[in-house]
Write a structure and sequence with these properties.
heterodimer, A: 462 residues, two-stranded antiparallel sheet, 12 strands, 13% strand, B: mainly alpha, 23 helices
């Protein structure tokens, strides 16, 4: 297990607290931004008609019943609505390993220990200098099918090398430490509904800051397939009877005792939810939720979250924008080769499975996946089989509708910036504007500050 | 007039409720022993305990190693859970938890298990003592200074975070007898605290720095003076609305329905004398409302600590950390500065969390037809055995009857053949799990 830098650890620690706490954060660095979503209150409810246990952020004083009706109404209003899925490579992914300049002598000179062998991985068809990391076969496949666009040098001017700050910029869609709402959150605030928390879905136990809204509700869900009552040493018909008895205990008269009533209700509602979620339950011998295609088997939640998302979309849930973390830790200051290969493999294989799943379910034209990281890594390796924080990094767009063309060119290693980092050849805000206008049909100017100053790439196939 | 005192029967069931409300439930036989002391003796044994004796096996992680509460992830939670399980001063430990919930500080914002445990020691020191001393110390406690921006509050850029919560959550109640201007003025009074960040060690050397303090005139609650942080606390303690806030909040930690006006007024009188909480606690714990009123849902850590006490099991796994999160209570990580919502412990997610807690707690005692004692194919004996394993909790007759019905119907088709041997242990495990997650056991 590679060590990550202390800034990364503190970032992770503090960010865990923010979405729920929001108040009283210690400054960990001068000028540290307060993460988007701070101060939003959280409450949990069960969308009964749909069988989902949700944590809802924001949303004023609406009662759960209103949300349930809102979700139904939103689903009916736009059953074919487009969906954007944001996948975060946490820690600063090494773009120079994901697509590596195999024949470049400068690459071998800068990375005497980490350079990948020139005969490994698949050649990258759009730029003869580059090859895919051997663990990214899944992405190479999608690229060959024209379903993947790559931004090989995405970033912004005056790059910030703090995990906290740079990630914040990407989340809020602006190079501002003061912004408190996520770029996708602002999109929802403009076009969303006050009663549909599923419109902004964090596939996580907590709010993803990119989805932080100012006024409309969003939701967090770990996955629809994790609701069981496993009990050691109980199985078969006895287990079934036991769950029925759990319900019966909840149905005993409580004689008006308020405490007993609460405990009894919890047992009853849990039993009902268990029944409603049975369709999402993994089949005997499988680890994922029922899917038309196989997903990678992993301890990590990523593949099952994607499988769950596909199942939720297939069930007609009115999901609009989704955010989740990719598996692994990309802050590879040491032991990079093994750690990175493992993270990339699971990420790419899961994304390929998700695309195949959407295709099999006839949903592929409705969904676009955006993969990002807070920065790339230093071109020159460090002394501990790793790389330090860099500037420009990689961005990916996946889906049946994408143009499948480069967004900005590979910046090359000949003209690094003064700190030895890759220079940006596209701006993440230009990509955001393009996603908002070309995919989601929104007015980017109202959402991304200075929208018109960024060049928008052509994202979709004609 | 005197505060009403419970004068009904004080038997095992009443002692059991007292131990759950004012502690972490009984160990085997403890409720019977407490009942023998009578109500007053029982209450005094809790409010005036002897020196701490930790009873039971020392805590360890899954590999049998001692805990590292300052350094290892989650061991802070395990360390405190162990105190709850092994303590001989259950009320002092329970009050430490009450204060943690009251002055709710989360390590999500502090980022130091060392400072959180230091604060925990402070809360324990004052568990049954003076609210005044507690308030003065927690106001300048390092974890609290980090959590509510106390060290970012300086004369040049005042930060109102602590000043607001001091009144809203800690001493007066939201909007109860103070204005926005009081918040700003109190923030000025509280200025002056700072720390030094040292690489490797983190925030250290928390201190008052005169240069950062605003020495000017302030007006708080209509009183004028060059107040500092001590004055800020004392002004709240002297506020006429403060005693009512404290006794109502304290009461609500033990009794789920509010006190009647006469009781409340008397509790206020007891408290107002010198801000000591012990006399208030003694009155609350002997009050009829505690014994005759409705049941209360046990907080998740209380539920688990009590399960382990009843089973006689020590801390031997770190699973309690993530399971605690699932059940809705990770120690040192309250959801926000308002603490846990004690009216909403149970929903479909946390119910499942408690199911998992019970499942893991009972795990080592799990029965099978391949090892361990033979389980008789006898529903009555199976229900009795489950009650015994859990330390003979008192349950309603209807609950017992239902468990018996479940055991009987599950064994009905298992009189002969392989099921005759295989099913009794399955049913016994299921009865234990159902008992531990029953509405009866989730509440006290």
């Amino acid at each position: 297990m590679a060590r990550c830098c202390s800034d990364y650890t503190r970032t992770a620690l503090i960010r865990r607290g923010v979405a729920e706490a929001g108040r009283g954060l210690p400054a960990i660095e001068p000028g540290m931004p307060v993460p988007a979503g701070s101060g939003l209150s959280r409450r949990d409810f069960v969308a009964r008609s749909l069988g989902l246990a949700l944590a809802v952020y924001g949303g004023g004083s609406l009662l759960p019943d209103a949300f349930e009706e809102g979700i139904e109404a939103a689903a009916a209003a736009d059953p074919q609505g487009r969906v954007l899925v944001s996948v975060f490579l946490d820690g600063g992914a090494d773009s120079l390993s994901m697509l590596f300049p195999a024949e470049d002598p400068v690459y071998r000179a800068l990375r005497p220990r980490l350079a990948l062998p020139g005969d490994q991985g698949t050649p990258f068809a759009e730029d003869a200098r580059l090859r895919w990391h051997p663990s990214l076969g899944g992405l190479a496949t999608l690229h060959a099918e024209g379903k993947l666009s790559v931004a090989p040098g995405i970033g912004y001017t005056t790059p910030n090398q703090s995990h906290f700050t740079s990630r914040h910029y990407y989340e809020v869609g602006a190079t501002s430490v003061r912004a408190r709402t996520g770029w996708l959150g602002r999109y929802l605030d403009r076009v969303g509904r006050p009663d549909n928390p599923l419109q902004g879905l964090s596939l996580d136990n907590r709010l993803q800051p990119a989805l932080a809204t100012a006024r409309l509700p969003t939701a967090a869900i770990d996955g629809p397939d994790r609701y069981d009552f496993w009990t050691r040493g109980v199985w078969g018909e006895v287990a079934d009877r036991m769950l029925a008895a759990m319900r019966d205990l909840g149905s005993l008269p409580h004689g008006g005792d308020a405490g007993l009533a609460v405990a009894a209700d919890a047992a009853l509602q849990s039993h009902r939810l268990y029944g409603q979620l049975l369709p999402f339950k993994p089949k005997e011998g499988s680890t994922g939720i029922p899917s038309p295609v196989p997903y990678p088997v992993s301890e990590d939640a990523f593949p099952r979250r994607l499988a769950g998302l596909a199942a939720m979309l297939a069930a007609g849930l009115p999901v609009r924008v989704v955010a989740l973390r990719a598996p692994g830790m990309y802050d590879t200051h040491d032991s990079q080769p093994g750690e990175l290969a493992e993270s990339l493999q699971l990420t790419a294989d899961s994304l390929l499975a998700f695309q195949r799943d959407l295709e099999a379910r006839g949903l592929a034209d409705r969904v676009l996946v955006h993969v990002w990281s807070e920065f790339g890594r230093r071109a020159k390796e460090n002394g501990s089989d790793g790389t330090d924080h860099g500037a420009a990094g990689i961005g990916l767009l996946l889906g049946s509708r994408v143009a499948g063309r480069l967004i900005g060119e590979f910046p090359g290693l000949q003209k690094l910036d003064e700190q030895g980092n890759l220079r940006a050849t596209s701006d993440f805000r230009g990509l955001y504007c393009a996603l908002l206008e070309q995919w989601l049909g929104a007015d980017a100017e109202a959402i991304v500050p200075g929208a018109r100053s960024f060049r928008q790439p052509q994202l979709l196939r004609a | 007039m005197a505060i009403p005192r419970y004068n009904g029967r004080f038997g095992k069931a009443q002692a059991e409720r007292l131990l759950w409300r004012a502690g972490f439930g009984p160990r085997q036989g403890e409720a019977e022993r407490l009942a023998k002391l009578g109500l007053d003796g029982a209450v005094r044994s809790l409010t005036r305990p002897g020196p701490e004796k930790l009873v039971g096996p020392a805590p360890k992680d899954d590999k049998g190693r001692p805990l590292a509460p300052i350094d290892a992830y989650g061991h802070d939670h395990l360390w405190w859970l162990d105190r709850m399980v092994r303590t001989s001063r259950p009320l002092a430990e329970r009050m430490t938890l009450v204060w943690h919930d009251w002055f709710a500080t989360s390590n999500a914002g502090v980022g130091s298990q060392r400072l959180m445990l230091q604060q925990n020691g402070l809360l324990r020191r004052h568990a049954l003592g003076s609210f005044k001393e507690l308030l003065l110390e927690i106001t300048v406690d390092p974890a609290m200074l980090l959590w509510l921006s106390g060290t970012e509050n300086s004369r040049r850029s005042p930060n109102e975070n602590y000043a607001r919560e001091l009144m809203e959550l800690f001493t007066l109640g939201e909007g109860n007898g103070y204005t926005e201007r009081d918040v700003r003025e109190q923030a000025r009074a509280l200025t002056g605290w700072r720390y030094t960040w040292r690489r490797g060690a983190g925030a250290t050397d928390f201190r008052f720095d005169r240069e950062r303090h605003d020495p000017g005139q302030k007006v708080v609650f209509g009183r004028r003076g060059t107040f500092d942080w001590r004055d800020a606390c004392n002004l709240c303690l002297q506020h006429p609305r403060h005693p009512r806030f404290v006794v109502e909040k304290l009461w609500s930690a033990f009794v789920p329905v509010p006190p009647d006006d006469a009781t409340r007024a008397e509790l206020e009188r007891l408290y107002r004398a010198d801000h000591r909480v012990r006399p208030v606690l003694e009155a609350v714990l002997a009050h009829p409302a505690l014994y005759t009123g409705p049941r209360m849902v046990k907080p998740p850590v209380v539920y688990l600590a009590g399960l382990l006490r009843g089973l006689g099991r020590g801390i031997d796994t770190a699973s309690w950390v993530w399971l605690g999160g699932m059940a809705g209570q990770r120690l040192f990580y309250p959801p926000d500065v308002a603490g846990w919502d004690d009216t909403r412990w149970l929903d479909t997610a946390t119910f499942r969390g408690r199911w998992a807690l019970a499942n893991y707690a009972l795990g080592p005692y799990s029965l099978s037809d391949r090892k361990g004692p033979t389980v008789p194919n006898d529903p009555e004996a199976i229900v009795k055995g489950a009650l015994k394993v859990l330390g003979e909790p008192t349950i309603r007759p209807a609950t017992r009857a239902l468990l018996l019905r479940f055991a009987r119907s599950s064994l009905a088709g298992a009189k002969t053949g392989w099921k005759a041997k295989a099913y009794p242990p399955l049913v016994a495990n299921a009865v234990r799990q159902l008992l531990a997650t029953s509405p009866d056991y989730q509440t006290s």
